[in-house]
Design goal:
The chain has 18 helices and 11 strands. By secondary structure, it is α+β, with helices and mostly antiparallel strands.
Length: 566
Amino acid sequence: MEAPPMRLPLRVKIILPFAVLLVFTGLVGSGLATSRITTEAAAESDASLLHASLLAHQQLAQVEAERMAELRAASDTIGVAEALQAGSAAALNAFLIPIAANAAPAGLTVEALSLRGRPLVRIGPTPDGPQPLPLASAPDLTEVAQVRSVLDDRADAMGDRFVFIDATARPVTIDWVGPVRTAGGRLAGAVVVAQPVDEIAALIPGAAFFALDGSRLAASQSWTPALPADVVSGLSAGTTLRADETIDGHRYGELFSQWTVRAAPIGYLAVVQNQDGPAAVVTELRLLFTILFAAAALLVLVVGTVLSSLITRPVERLVEAMRAVSGGDLRRRAAVGSGDEIGYLAQAFNEMTAALAQKTAALEETTFASVEALAQAIDARDPSTYGHSQRVAAFSLELADEMGVTGEVREALRRAALLHDIGKIGVEDRVLRKPGPLSAQEGADMRAHPRIGHQMLKGLPFLQASLPGILHHHERWDGEGYPHGLRGDRIPLPVRILTLVDAFDAMISERSYRRSLELEEAAQAIVREAGTQFDPDVVSAFTRRKGAIFRLARSMVRGQSNLEAA
């Protein structure tokens, strides 16, 4: 009788399913992990390209602002219009050479045109500085649509100054053109300020510029990326197109976007970055994950049957922590109960969560810094309110310390103080800078700024605690404020603090329609409004802390003699 075929040992039967499952899990997990790493590396590369593109557009906006300032200086200088009418090249040179000399770009060209578009003077760079250039070398601009618009005294929604690419110039230039008017408003001619595009490209590392027809204009590197056909055919304002290209064995990432000036497209901008580093990192991480999974497979095969019950419980705790973190609780940590692989995994998860929390906090700070910069720019629209938000924030923290406001509430107050007037971005300059009383409609426009600011920022989760201060900083203790007419304790304490210091800083700041108050005068005015405009408890805290607040005011509000003497 033949012996029955040998069956698999029980140990093999126990281990084999684990081995199969582990191999399957290792392959799938490695694939998913490497796929995730590849995706994250691509996302990081995209983010880096987008950041570089944003910086490039910011640089272009700065260049535009500088050229527009020089164009205004050239067209608005007293005497230029009369010199244009008289056709006096000597007088025009005397007026325009200093303007060209004061301009930062070395290659700037300034040209004065008669009403017929004929160049009268052309000032450009020479070894001896800006000097008159031969008019024979001046490009013919009479048929350029933007120049004709100026000479025909036309304007569009952006005003009566225009910009265009002069592809006939060598090197290619971007030209800003604006009218020159007499004191009576009569058109006398035009001024053109031109800057070589390659000079602008040199300011932006890894940048390349193209005309609207796709032709190359300039680049800051030795080679120019290929412009995809769908960029010319379909790229619109506010959108970008990502492309990759390999040059001499090196991989480059490219991000194309529209180049807009005065809200109109004039060409395309490409930002180029070397991608060799991220590709190498992904390859190394793939190898690392393969090694880690192989080591884990061997370890589990040896001790899996013994430790299965001990592993289950810590894994469950780790999963709970992961779910909490994935739900947004970045303060949650997994319990590290042992020094084995599960403990190591829990520790690595905790470190990863801590790093994620740090990056999230850094991202919030970066976003806040951008929003704060916008708020500062809004303050700067009116010279009388420059630095207002920073002073209100400093005064608010002094008063918060006096009233025992600490921790997250204090930080929310600080952010609300820095951003409380951001809604004024929706208020026209003529209303903000009006030297006299506002009309009923203008007053309504001004009172809308808390709602505008709240609407702008309500989508940012980390600013939720600061939104009440932005929305309600013009409420009054007696309920006569806006926008909701809140009364008494229905106004949160941090908002009551912000309301008082906002009014105090307004009192001690110069305005075009009134003088600033001395510090003590302003403090007395605050006290008089206790129980009506302001919370009496906040007024009392202000009175106790006013010495420190006065010192802050003297150090932060410069150029006002009444503060220096107070």
